[in-house]
Amino acid sequence: MLTLPTEPLTLTRLKALAHDLRYEIVCLLAQRELCVCELEKLLEHGQSKVSYHLNLLKEAGIISGEQRGKNSFYRLERETLYTLGGELLSDVLHRFDTLELTHPDNSIC
Fold this sequence. Notes:
The chain is α+β, with helices and mostly antiparallel strands. The chain has one domain (9-88): Orthogonal Bundle (Arc Repressor Mutant, subunit A). Helix content is 55%, strand content 13%. The chain contains five helices and three strands. The chain has helices at 9-18, 20-31, 36-43, 47-59, 78-94; strands at residues 34-35, 63-68, 71-76. It has a three-stranded antiparallel beta sheet. A hairpin with a 2-residue loop joins strand 2 (63-68) and strand 3. Helix 2 crosses helix 4 (47-59). The longest helix is centred in the C-terminal third of the chain and has 17 residues, at 78-94. The protein is elongated.
């Protein structure tokens, strides 16, 4: 099982979305729930590669999966994407709130 790095969850999710194949998976799952075999065909990649990327997206909380018989079905966790933008903006705007600049004109150099 993969372990998430010790970084802000927002950054983990952005990194998960930054890969072109994972982004394509998210776009497909935004249309409807799909099983792995459907994703393999649509993406024109093998099962191991698709499953690897699905697992990374799942670990980041962007998608969820469910086993039904022999097939695994995946769906987009829309709420995660809805809140990601706000979390990113909040982090960017407030990460260095306590930074004290010593130069008179608020410049570091």
